[in-house]
């Protein structure tokens, strides 16, 4: 993700901020230009953005900002929809009268907006194409009820997420129970969104056969594959072909896990470049641990150029985390087949963006 600065005072601000902590200016994210801008009141209850190229534009606060203070995205004044581009994707939100649900929902929205940011940067579609029977991407955030646990998953464009995933203790319990080295709210949503984009970009397209060559035949019985995985565990050599053990359960899960890793990689490399991070270690393996971007991050850059900076970055991030007694930021090793699957997703996203 890009770094952002307050348009009033120049201080560093973060994607989730609603105010600059230095000068106190109100901040709003402009999805049309992917800028986090200082904003000031304008006429008729509207807001003026101070970001470059935006001073003649007028915006409204998202309805979820006005009512619940859980969103910092803006809506163009001419847009009749009361919700921002990210919040209008919601089909159902949690019951906010239940204790703790507002905080859980806020965490979910922060993660969802990061995903939508990357989708916008990659130029991927969000809305459906009814003539092609391709649904829009939508979200449903719900809690368990007595005798009716909520199962997280994707169905025909709708991502259902159990809001218990927003509780750190519950998510950690599930991570340990499912033997996962890494489980975050953001990563979980990225995985589920991947299932939507398989239906949207791969199924019934020219990409289906290349997909099968890399990931396998998705027509294999999905339920039986998952049952076998949970009963027997992954194949002993799963790491030679997949980004994670769970990816070995079925081609659809291989796709979803790889897609989530692609989003991790693109987000982190863009963030590192935006901060101007370079790595020049004094180490015998320095040629393999050096990262110094030759050019500004470009979403269209070749995937090899992304990897040249990704691998050294993971070495540094994992070492820094260990110095704080934390788990590795990226506890994975990418095999050559896994890298080729990531490259496939990169090429697919590039092709989709340039078809618009």
Q: Termini distance? A: 23 Å
Low-confidence stretches: none
Mean pLDDT: 89
Helix-strand pattern:
EEEEEEHEEHEEEHHHHHHHH
**Using DSSP, what is the number of strands?**
11
Based on Cα principal axes, name the global outline: globular
| Biggest sheet descriptor | 5 strands, antiparallel
| Gyration radius over CA | 21 Å
Question: How much of the sequence is in beta strands?
Answer: 5-15%
Strands ordered across the widest β-sheet: 3-4-5-6-7
Specify the structural class.
alpha+beta
Number of domains: 3
Instruction: Count helical runs.
Output: 10
If you had to describe this structure to a student in words, what would you say it looks like?
- This protein has 356 residues and is an alpha+beta fold.
- It folds into 3 domains: 1-84, no CATH class; 86-188, no CATH class; 222-354, no CATH class.
- The chain is built from 10 helices and 11 strands.
Summary keywords:
356 residues, five-stranded antiparallel β-sheet, globular, alpha+beta, 10 helices, four-stranded mixed β-sheet, 12% strand
Per-chain topology:
Elements: E1 4-5, E2 12-13, E3 26-30, E4 35-41, E5 47-49, E6 58-61, H1 63-68, E7 74-76, E8 90-92, H2 101-122, E9 138-142, E10 153-155, E11 158-162, H3 168-177, H4 185-202, H5 208-215, H6 222-232, H7 251-274, H8 286-289, H9 303-323, H10 336-354
């Amino acid at each position: 993700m890009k770094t952002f600065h307050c348009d009033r005072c120049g201080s560093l601000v973060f994607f989730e901020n609603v105010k600059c902590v230095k000068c106190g200016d109100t901040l709003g994210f402009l999805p049309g230009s992917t800028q986090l801008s200082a904003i000031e009141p304008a006429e008729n209850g509207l807001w003026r953005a101070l970001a470059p190229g935006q001073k003649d534009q007028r915006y409204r606060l998202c309805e979820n900002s006005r009512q619940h203070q859980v969103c910092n995205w803006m809506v163009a004044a001419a847009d009749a929809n009361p919700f921002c581009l990210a919040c209008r994707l919601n089909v159902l939100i949690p019951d906010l009268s239940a204790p703790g649900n507002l905080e859980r929902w806020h965490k979910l929205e922060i993660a969802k907006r990061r995903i939508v940011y990357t989708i916008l940067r990659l130029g991927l579609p969000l809305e459906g194409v009814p003539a092609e029977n391709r649904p829009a991407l939508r979200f449903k955030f719900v809690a368990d009820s007595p005798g009716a646990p909520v199962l997280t998953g994707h169905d025909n464009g709708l991502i259902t997420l159990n809001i218990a995933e927003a509780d750190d203790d519950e998510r950690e319990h599930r991570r340990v129970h499912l033997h996962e080295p890494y489980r975050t709210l953001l990563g979980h949503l990225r995985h589920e969104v991947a299932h939507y984009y398989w239906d949207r970009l791969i199924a019934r397209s020219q990409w289906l056969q290349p997909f099968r060559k890399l990931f396998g035949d998705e027509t294999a019985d999905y339920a039986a594959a998952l049952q076998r995985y949970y009963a027997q565990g992954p194949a002993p050599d799963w790491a030679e072909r997949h980004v994670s053990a769970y990816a070995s359960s079925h081609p659809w899960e291989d796709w979803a896990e790889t897609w989530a890793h692609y989003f991790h990689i693109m987000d982190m490399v863009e963030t590192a470049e935006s901060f101007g991070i370079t790595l020049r270690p004094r180490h015998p393996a320095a040629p393999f641990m050096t990262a110094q971007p030759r050019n500004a991050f470009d979403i269209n850059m070749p995937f090899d150029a992304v990897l040249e900076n990704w691998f050294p970055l993971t070495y540094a991030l994992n070492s820094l985390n260990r110095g704080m007694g934390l788990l590795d930021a990226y506890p994975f090793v990418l095999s050559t087949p896994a890298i080729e699957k990531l490259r496939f997703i990169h090429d697919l996203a590039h092709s989709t963006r340039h078809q618009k």
